[in-house]
Amino acid sequence: MANTGRPTTIDAYIQSFPDDVRAILENVRQAVRRGAPDAVETMSYGMPTFDLNGKHLVFLAGWKRHISVYPIPAGDEVFQRDIAPYRTEKSTLRFPVNKPIPLELVERTVTFLRQESR
């Protein structure tokens, strides 16, 4: 099989970014781990993916100017208000890398996704 040049692990994916973005991605990864400590780290669609009970729970991706987290759970009214500044599409949260990432919000996102996956 030909090497596509795509990272095959989350560690390799994070290492492919500049130092400043690496640190942010690692912090987001740890927030996801806190929200779903029993999730299995994988790669899917070329992105870090966290699987729970054999199904994809959450994806994250690094870009030049932002970090994305997919999908967005329904959550509750307070959660919907809190994610409003980061919601760019129906199912995507986009966090600019030039501002502090609300890691607690990432963790809450994953917690809601876990609850909704049951």
Describe the structure.
The structure is a single chain. The chain has one domain: Aspartate Aminotransferase, domain 1. Helices cover 38% and strands 27% of the residues. It has four helices and six strands, in the order H-H-E-E-E-E-H-E-E-H. A six-stranded antiparallel sheet has the order 1-2-3-4-6-5. Strand 3 and strand 4 form a beta hairpin. Helix 2 packs across helix 4.
Brief rundown of the structure:
With 118 residues, the protein is an alpha+beta fold. 38% of the residues lie in helices and 27% in strands.
Radius of gyration: 14 Å
pLDDT < 50 stretches? none
How helical, in percent, are the residues? 25-40%
| Extended strand count | 6
**What is the first-to-last residue Cα distance?**
37 Å
CATH class: Alpha Beta
Name the structural class: alpha+beta
State the strand order across the main sheet. 1-2-3-4-6-5
CATH architecture group name: Alpha-Beta Complex
List keywords for this structure.
single chain, 118 residues, alpha+beta, Aspartate Aminotransferase, domain 1, six-stranded antiparallel β-sheet, 4 helices, 27% strand
List the helices and strands and how they pair.
Blueprint: H1 10-15, H2 19-35, E1 40-44, E2 47-52, E3 55-62, E4 66-70, H3 77-83, E5 87-89, E6 92-96, H4 103-117
Antiparallel strand pairs: 1-2, 2-3, 3-4, 4-6, 5-6
Helix pairs in contact: 2-4
